[in-house]
Amino acid sequence: MHCHHMIPALLLSTAPAAHAWGVLGHSTVAYVAQHYVTPSTANFVQAILGTAPDYMANVSSWPDTYRRTPEGEWSTQLHWIDANDAPPESCEVEYTRDCRPRAAKSTEAQLLDAIRFLIHFAGDIHQPLHTEALEEGGNGINITWDGKTANLHAIWDTQIPVKAAAGKNASEWAEEMVGLIENGKYNASGWLDATSLDDIKGTAMSWANDANDYVCTDVLPDGREAIEAEGVDLAGAYFEKHGEVTKELIARAGYRLGSFLNLIVDGPANGHWSDN
Ligand SMILES: [Zn+2]
Q1: Residue 210 has what DSSP assignment?
Q2: Given 2, 4, 19, 67, the catalytic residue
Q3: What is the annotated signal peptide range for this record (predicted)?
Q4: What is the widest separation between alpha-carbon atoms in the chain?
Q5: Distance, CA 270 to ligand 1 centroid (Å)?
Q6: Ordered structural domains, the chain, with CATH
Q7: Sign of CA pseudo-dihedral 209, 212, 217, 218
Q8: Considering the chain, what percentage of its residues have pLDDT values greater than 90?
Q9: What is the whole-number distance in angstroms between the Cα of residue 153 and the centre of ligand 1?
Q10: 4, 5, 79, 126: the active-site residue
Q11: Can you tell me the distance from the alpha carbon of 145 to that of 143, in angstroms, rounded to the nearest whole number?
Q12: Closest Cα partner for 30 from 52, 6, 2?
């Protein structure tokens, strides 16, 4: 219900009650972004976050901690969008229907908070169930994962990415994704088409709609009944068919985050950005 923006960060995302992408997802997004930032962007961001090798990854889950503190409670609803669409027949995020603009708070517009939010929300907005209203983004859909009862939202946050990473840590998984982008296995050429500092809302909505498409094609391709049915374990055929998309979505989130930071720091006319 809440699509919110704050300068300079794009603050818009999704994630009912449970979590966001789990820690693996958020860290991996950050490592992919770290690969794609220009030296000037890296300097800019490191001046705010410090120069540790994992300078972006180590703050990537901070907003999930912050939202659980009294002073951070206001930010809770920034983690998701409740798209009132109708999966699997129709998937779409509409700004006027699904988002409620909120005034930016100058006290929160500190650069440190803004950058940590941007790193985190670039991840959240690429988790399909953070852009879906149905049962609070799947939190209310009970399924079976690996023989145990779980909810659909949680497995898309955590279990599916962890299984798709096949034992790799965030840094190793990010490296694999960068390889897939660089060798053209992932076609990144269109990933920045709708990304612009002149239209933050449009940028956010295009990223959200991108992720939301997967609710129809991969999260609930045959409707909720098919995955709630007795005897269906999503760690089996469902994962084999749909689990890999988390990898591409996380790669896309990281690539977009790195490029968006370059856009903020270097401007649209510079190097890496204009090559894409
Ligand atoms: Zn989140």
Answers
A1: H
A2: 67
A3: 1-20
A4: 55
A5: 30
A6: 23-275 (1.10.575.10)
A7: positive
A8: 79
A9: 12
A10: 79
A11: 7
A12: 52
> What are the pLDDT digits (tens) for 89-126?
999 999 889 987 665 555 545 789 899 999 999 999 99
CA of 176 to the centre of ligand 1 (A): 24
Could you list the beta-strand ranges (E) of the chain.
142-145, 148-151
Burial state string for 4-36 with b = 16 or more CB within 10 A and e = fewer than 16: bbbebbbbbbbbbebbbbbbbbbbbbbbbbbbb
β-bridge partners, 145? 148
Active-site residue, 272 included: no
Q: With contact defined as beta carbons under 8 Å apart, do 117 and 78 qualify?
A: yes
Q: Which residue's structure tokens are 């939010």?
A: 117
- What CA–CA distances, in Å, run from 174 to 9, 169, 177? 23, 8, 5
Cα 166 from Cα 225, distance rounded (Å) = 28
Distance of alpha carbon 235 from alpha carbon 232, whole angstroms: 9
Ligand 1 center–CA 116 separation, angstroms: 11
**Cα–Cα dist 83/94, whole Å:** 7
In the chain, the amino acid numbered 83 is: A
Pick from 92, 47, 39, 87: nearest CA to 209: 92
> In terms of Cα–Cα distance, which of 121, 54, 132 is closest to 93?
132
Residue 83, sorted as left (phi over 0), alpha (psi -120 to 50) or beta, turns out to be beta
Catalytic status, residue 19: no
In this predicted model, what pLDDT tens digit does every residue of 178-210 receive, in sequence order? 999 999 999 999 999 999 999 999 999 999 999
